[in-house]
Amino acid sequence: MNKNGSGSRLPRLVNLGCGSVWHPAWDNLDVRPMGSEIQAWDVENGLPFDDGSVDGCYASHLLEHLTREGARTLVRECFRVLRSGGVIRLAVPDLETIAREYLRALGQAQEGDQAAMKQYEWITLELLDQLVRVESGGEMERYLRSRASENVDYVTSRIGSEAAPYFTQESERQGPSSQSHRNSSDNPNSHQFQHAFTALQERLVTGVCSLLIGRRGRSAVQEGLFRASGECHRWMYDQFSLKQLLEQCGFSDIRRCTAFESRMDTFDSYNLDVVNGDVRKPDSLFMEAVRP
Description:
The protein folds into 2 domains: about 15-95 and about 235-290, Vaccinia Virus protein VP39 (Rossmann fold); about 95-175, no CATH class. Helix content is about 40%, strand content about 15%. The protein has helices at about 70-80, 95-110, 115-130, 140-145, 150-160, 170-175, 190-225, 240-250; strands spanning about 15, 25-30, 40, 55-60, 80-95, 250-255, 275, 280, 285-290. A 7-stranded mixed sheet has the order 3-2-1-4-5-9-6. The longest helix has about 40 residues, at about 190-225.
């Protein structure tokens, strides 16, 4: 794990909220597991590990989906389960970079720069849509399905491989995918069944609400259920606020890093942040810290 760490013992590494991006050498957790290699677990219920039993915790684009207090609770849990010298690695959308890019595109668009006008439209969605959307995919997905071909290079530079399916003939059939690892034993029909069952539950709930509190009440309940589903961003971080959060939770030696570097030994071999030499989520802020 750490270069001065645990000798020949295999490190215990935990991937929190992994989605479809996982590695079999890790403990992979997600609230909606997409395969048998992934443990069903809601990180808002804490972490299912003993104190000081973990060598590394990794969470990519998870923290922003939690409330500020929820994120603080999770980072404290990571501190609890990490051994002394263990590393936490966080990747989140970089609010500072997005804000600076928004201001750059806005200024150039106001001066009549046609390319900047297209860039401004996308970066505004990137800044706001996941915070305010009330339906799955929101305005970003509508843009990707209808207008992204007008702005291919810029959108790809912002969201990386997640944009690729929208630029292929199969995009309408397959939809977006950001995975770097997928278990060959995954059962997509099982995953689809889970979503269908959840959708059925929501239709029953909203149907009852429509009878009891009318159309507007039903609409409010639908929006509330969606916003609680985990898709929306509930907060955003820059390097200053993320460092503050880590400090407040007891971590030290806090450093911003790139997708290509880590204090976890052989992290690059797991293809979590970098796949085939490309950064999987170019819009990310990467930060690591150590439990004293």
